Amino acid sequence: MPYAMKVALRSLWRERWINLLSILTIAMGLLVLTLIVLFMYNLNLFTKRLPERFSVVAYLKEGISEQDTQEIIASLKKHRSVEKVTYTSKAEALRELKASMKSADYILEGLNENPLPASIEIRLKREVVGPESVKSFVSDIRKIPGMEDIQYGEKFLVSLHSLKTGVQTAGLIITVIMAAGIIFICYSTVKILFYRRREEIETLKLLGATKRFIRLPFLVEGGVIGAAGGGISLIFILAFYAIVVMQLTATAPLFGAVVFPQRILACVPGAGFFLGIAGAFIAIGRIKF
Amino acid sequence: MIHFDNVSKYYDTNTAIRNITLSFEKGELAFITGPSGAGKTTLLKLIYAAELPDSGSVSVADWQTDRLDGSTIPLLRRNTGIVFQDFRLLDNMTVFDNVALSLRVRNVPERNVKEEVLDALKMVNLRHKTDSFPPALSGGEQQRVVIARAIIGEPTILLADEPTGNLDADTAAGIMNIVREINAKGTTILIATHNRDLFKNSGKRVIRLDAGSLVGEARG
């Protein structure tokens, strides 16, 4: 075993309580950090999938002719923002409504005429689904003669967009703060170890040790503390997934869509390792002879 | 080998070394003596660059100590075995590991470390204390560990600050025999000491310091 590793492991064991405390603190920090990253990842994934489900519904005026309807459909298909157009006639709309109200279809029994309008469901191209572009598209098609009303989840779209931007900004800020916090914990731990071993370091210098020889065990210690914190954090995250997310999925199926990608989870101990080394590197500072 | 050129060193307002010009030849064994506070320890520290001169210059082999940077100071020190007055043994390491430290900082392969450390400990009669920790040793034993750590790796210069300060007369004589053996191999040795018995009738050069100044030079 290389000497630096041996010295580092010996010091880790000798100062095990302070190191354990640092490891657990780092684990908590990385846990929060990883959950934020996973939340942002899932939110991003959700907003990316949104265009597949998002649609604008255009209701046509009562009594519009078949020819006018076909013209409207043709002009919509030609629009650069449109991916797909699905026409639903008045009769189809009523059939669908009856089918969806199977157990309460008596409500519709008293109707003498079909009150539902014909409609066109418009799927937009993925890149167009955003608050401003959808608004602009809707104002474009509103000008088409024969349009009665146009509906889409405007508030939802705006809220989701704001939420996404807000969460991303907040997530970034929290990520930076948490990463700085983890570096600081490693910095403090290694600084304490460094002070406790200053006599030893002085002796090493006088015996002819190079800066690298002196630094290396501390960097190994910082790395091990960070990686161990990352490892414990990973266990917490998997436990969180197993206990919280899977339990919630049973009662709220929405949580079934939550993903914990392996490639992000695999980075957690590595992130701890590098943050630990960064903290140790800052703690040691410049070695003067 | 070692040259002091009009060197002065001050600690705040106290003069530790005053205008000293002095040379030591390669392979020389010399003693530096004088009362406490005469500047003996500072003179040795100037050689291994633990202190730098405030004026004048100190040259050791091809190095001028005040011109060394962070990467060359370790090279100078690896060529210099030092017996510290305050030992500088690491209490949490065994005798073996304390002595081995001198080799490990030089990146000597671990397979060679064991043999060399055991040889050095045998030389100072501490082969049986390999696994002991310094606090469990007597002052004399600790001093011998320091000597073993200083001579291991055959440095070109050996600096000893009161190397027999804690030893009885017989052990001190034993240590001086070791020192003479090492010197016979061509190592330049400087010993700072109060103990006149060490240099009496040695026929070696004795440099006397007082209040930081060179006050005399004679043969022991």
What does this structure look like?
The complex is a heterodimer of chains A (289) and B (220). Chain A is α+β, with helices and mostly antiparallel strands and 289 residues long. Chain A has 2 domains: 3-49 and 158-284, no CATH class; 55-151, Alpha-Beta Plaits, CATH 3.30.70.3040. Helix content of chain A is 70%, strand content 8%. Chain A contains 9 helices and 4 strands, in the order ααβαβαβαβαααα. Chain A has a 4-stranded antiparallel β-sheet with strand order 2-3-1-4. In chain A, α1 (3-14) packs across α8 (211-251). The model of chain A has no long low-confidence stretch (mean pLDDT 86). Chain B is built from 7 helices and 10 strands. With 220 residues, chain B is of the alpha/beta class. Chain B has helices at 40-47, 73-78, 95-104, 110-123, 139-151, 169-184, 196-199, and strands at 2-11, 14-24, 29-33, 55-60, 63-64, 80-83, 157-161, 188-192, 205-210, 213-219. A 6-stranded mixed β-sheet of chain B has the order 6-7-8-3-9-10, sandwiched between helices. Chain B has a domain at 1-79 and 188-220: Rossmann fold, CATH 3.40.50.300. Chains A and B meet through α7 of A and α2 and α3 of B.
Principal-axis shape of chain B equals: globular
Regarding CATH, which class of the domain at 1-79 and 188-220 in chain B?
Alpha Beta
| Structure class of chain B | alpha/beta
Q: In percent terms, what proportion of residues of chain B is strand? A: 25-35%
Q: Of all protein chain pairs, which has the greatest interface, and how many residues does each chain bring to it?
A: A-B, 18 and 26 residues
